[in-house]
Amino acid sequence: MEIRTTCPYCGVGCGLTVARGGTGVRIEGDPVHPANFGRLCSKGAALAETLDLDGRLLQAEIGGRPSSFETALDTVARGFTRTLAEHGPEALAFYVSGQLLTEDYYVANKLMKGFLGSANIDTNSRLCMASAVAGHKRAFGADLVPCSYDDVDAADLVVLVGSNTAWCHPVLFQRIVAAKAERGARVIVIDPRRTATCDAADLHLPIRPGTDVMLFNGLLAYLQATGAMDARFVAAHTENAAAALAAARADAPSIDAVAAGCGIPAGAVAELYASFAATPRAVTLFSQGVNQSSSGTDKVNAIINVHLATGRIGRPGAGPFSLTGQPNAMGGREVGGLANQLAAHMDFTPEATDRVRRFWNAPHVATRPGLKAVELFDAIDSGSIRAVWIMSTNPVVSMPDADKVRRALERCDLVVVSDCVRRTDTTECADVLLPAAAWGEKSGTVTNSERRISRQRAFLPPPGASRPDWWIVSRVAQRMGFTDAFAYRGPADIFREHARLSAFENGGTRDFDLGALATLSDLEYETLDPVQWPVSASPDLNAAAALAAGTFCTPSGKARFVAVTSRPPAAVATAQYPLLLNTGRVRDHWHTLTRTGLSAKLSQRDTEPFVQVHPDDAARLGITDGDLGELTARTGRMLARVQVTGDVRAGELFAPMHWNAQFASEGRVGTLIDAVTDSISGQPELKCAAVGLKRFAPCWHGFLASRQRLEIADVSYCVAAKADGYWAYVLAGDAVPGTWRQWSRAICGTDCDWIEVADAAAGRYRGAALRDGRLVACVLIGSRPVMGARDALAELFRGGAIPASARLGILSGSLGSVDADRGAIICSCFSVGRATLVEAIQSQRLTSTREIGAALRAGTSCGSCLSELSALLAEAPTSPSGLRRSLAAR
Fold first, then answer.
1. Distance between CA 3 and CA 597 in Å, rounded?
2. Cis-peptide, bond into residue 534, ω within 30° of zero
3. What is the predicted pLDDT for the residue at 836?
């Protein structure tokens, strides 16, 4: 029997079908889900690899020791009750996650704001879309996303701002590519870095970091100067246009001024402006490059302003569209998971507070906003927050100034962590661990970027003692004396209450309304099809229709222009820290690797933390491609593999956000980022940090492969990656740890037969551990970086007793007669490597990505690798560019 559910990764909200059988779990795209129509990205396609129980938290723990769940729940309840009695409600905090289901979120928010009496509950969504929320509320009077994916399909112009959609929202990106191919839609990308998304672009504007407001202010002024504004819409449906236009003209007086400020050619600016002015069906998609900024809210409003000026909102194929990063960031916004929201899109007004108090029958409901994420951890650090409960997130990795966050948790009186993973950087700081059900084991709802609510359904039983988050929070609430308010039988009960609250005393005054779903039976809830809100019980009170009519949730019913002025990022390059660091995601990994790090398929492509460096900066610093680089900042340090590339601007770097202490000894990029926030949204400036970079030159390098995951200490650099049948470790050190024989055996085990060879003069060592003739581990050490042939190793680890010839190969570093590797993985969906692709392109004379797909399937699923396939085609000797290079080399 197939179960329909949703993907747990990005905000696209793809539907899945799951079938269990004798060979395991089969996961495919749901062909009828309106978010993806059967498409999946590489991460979604590899979900079945992440379902085993390796590394799971299966039992409650107190002080690092196993405990019964009942005892752990009692401990949490007593700790929070004692802290509340001794220090008051402001000494308590929850830090939650867009990985929670809406029902989990609702119960946590209700407990904290309704019954504990504090609004100190914030979410890791603060790190990804708080600026979008603030911008929406300033412009529309409510957190309304005025677009849907159908608008992207219908647009004639798609402007992507601060969004590597090809990698971060791959399935939506394929809809953009389809619109371009089928209807000739024009694509413009605004991003300081050249990304895979740029390969679909008709125009790429690599602006200076933080200059988005100036660029869009210039566009607003241009629209007025050229008569491209919709004067009728502006007059009838907006207010404050004059102030916004005056600020725009002062900030961006001419195209030349904008070009100089943004660091791009004037012709590119003029092309963007002319295209936008001439294209009524224009959608502007924006994501973390806009939001994660000290001026993120102003950037959002600068984008919204140009859509209001042209009346391109509430119309098919037009509007400003925020892409959420997590599967349920939107659901968290709906229930009040942000510290500055109450519940159901209500703020802390006296009227709303009274309304929620009466609905919840909660006499101690919070009456003012709580602490936002950075403020919350600062308060833990200062001791004003004495007890914190962290649910389904890893702030010791993801927060800025991450080392300070870790120190704060280490000194906090009570740290409770609910998670499905036993070892994360954050669980290591916990006093109490509560085992939570993971994706695939819990049921509820999520809301994607286009306001579409979908059911997430369980298809596996919760293992061990693990339980859904709503159950855990409810049991603690009951132990604290709030039994009746948290007597839920299941997620359907919670959803109905959530829907009733959204409609309670609404009357069309609030955009968020699920009134039509408030009376769903359990069966109707279980079989609920994806639906976009609002779904009011009163057809006459339809906020979507109101939006189309130009009516907004402000007191006047009009949308508000917001006057904004460009400001540079808070980070300033200095002599000590002369480079600006940008951070973000890679194609095949997600957040802090707790799920994707378990997939060998997803760990093939990016096996180490890396830093991208412009060739001019690399030459000046004496760094070459493949070196290890040491990044330093006022707040911390990171080691990463150097990639020299023209994809970043000179003076700027890029490093991914995913690696943590469980996978890389010095790989947390959050240690380098100051905790500077947008003054309105509280969102940290994660896209721009001042850092230094120098070559890290260890005295030895190593590669270790092991059938089991190992603990490796006393090395300067250690990165672990899941491979096919084994764990691979890339190592480096400043000092030789005793003899290599002793060191290797201490790590890999002394109960094995060892074969080894050493060349002390050359600084080389090769060792292999075998048990009953089968390979257990192998170690390769040298004075320069060494790597094992991963495909060949997989074959050796899968096999039985290893013949002598292959053993000699291990010790020589060549792995004997085993076939050559596929090379670096280009297509993760089908595990197609660079070497395989190059051979096929040359031998079969392939000339297009379509032909590659027909021959090897590469690029035919999520399409995220199409840019790399195009690059390989361009490098081929038979291509025009490849032929020119070949002739030039003669």
1. 25
2. yes
3. 87
Looking at the 3D structure of the chain, how many domains does it have?
4
Token pair belonging to 707:
């059938």
Split at pLDDT 50, 70, 90, the class of 770 is very high
Torsion-angle region of 444 (φ positive above 0: left; ψ -120 to 50: alpha; else: beta): left
Largest CA distance in the chain: 84
Query: If pLDDT is split at 50, 70 and 90, which confidence band does 147 have?
Result: very high
Is the per-residue pLDDT at 887 higher than 50?
A: no
Which of 766, 789, 812 is where one domain is finished? 812
One domain for residues 652 and 795: no
3-state SS string for 139-192: HHCCCCCCCCHHHHHHCCEEEEECCCHHHHCHHHHHHHHHHHHHHCCEEEEECC
On whether the CB atoms of residues 177 and 162 are closer than 8 A, the answer is no
Q: What is the pLDDT of residue 258?
A: 98
Provide the pLDDT for residue 509.
Answer: 87
Q: Which of 192, 255, 201, 193 is nearest to 226 (CA)?
A: 255
Mean pLDDT of 702-724: 93
Beta strands 414-419 and 432-435 are: parallel
Q: How far apart are CA 579 and CA 574, in angstroms?
A: 8
User: Which residues make Cβ contacts (< 8 Å) with residue 3, sequence separation at least 6?
Assistant: 17, 18, 19, 457, 459
Q: Residue 731: helix, strand or coil by DSSP?
A: strand
Domain assignment of residue 154, yes or no: yes
Could you tell me the pLDDT band of residue 814, with boundaries at 50, 70 and 90?
low
Judge contact between 423 and 662, C-beta under 8 A: yes
Residue carrying structure tokens 């409770």: 416
Class of residue 35 by CB neighbours under 10 A (exposed 0-12, middle 13-18, buried 19+)? buried
Closest CA to 428 of 662, 639, 598: 662
Euclidean distance between CA atoms 347 and 778, whole angstroms? 59
Q: 872-882: per-residue pLDDT in tens?
A: 888 877 655 55
On whether both 159 and 227 belong to a single domain, the answer is yes
Pairwise pLDDT comparison (737 vs 471), residue with the higher score: 471
Show the domain range for 797: 700-812
pLDDT cut 90: percent of the chain above it: 79
What's the CATH number where 238 sits? Answer: 3.40.228.10
Map residue 193 onto helix, strand or coil.
Answer: coil
> What DSSP letter does each residue of 795-825 carry, written as one string?
HHHHSSSPPHHHHHHHHHTS-TTSPPP--SE
pLDDT tens-digit map of 491-531: 999 999 999 999 999 988 898 999 999 999 999 999 999 99
Whole-angstrom distance, CA of residue 137 vs CA of residue 345: 10
Residues 723 and 849 in one domain: no
Token digits for 415? 């740290």
> Taking all residues of the chain, what is their mean pLDDT, rounded to a whole number?
93
As a whole number, mean pLDDT of residues 763-784 equals 90
* pLDDT for the residue numbered 452: 97
Whole-number Å distance between alpha carbons of 416 and 436: 12
Q: Return the minimum-mean-pLDDT range out of 54-63, 150-159, 571-580, 736-745.
A: 736-745
Asked whether residue 510 is assigned to any structural domain, the reply reads: no
What are the residue ranges of helices labelled H in 504-549? 522-526, 543-548
- Residue of 882, 726, 733 whose CA lies nearest to 791: 726
> Which of the listed residues 287, 322, 357 is the one where a domain comes to its end?
322
- Candidates 108, 193, 162; CA nearest to 643 is 193
How far apart are the C-alpha atoms of 863 and 173, rounded to whole Å? 9
Angle 171-868-127 (CA atoms, 0-180°, nearest 5)? Answer: 50
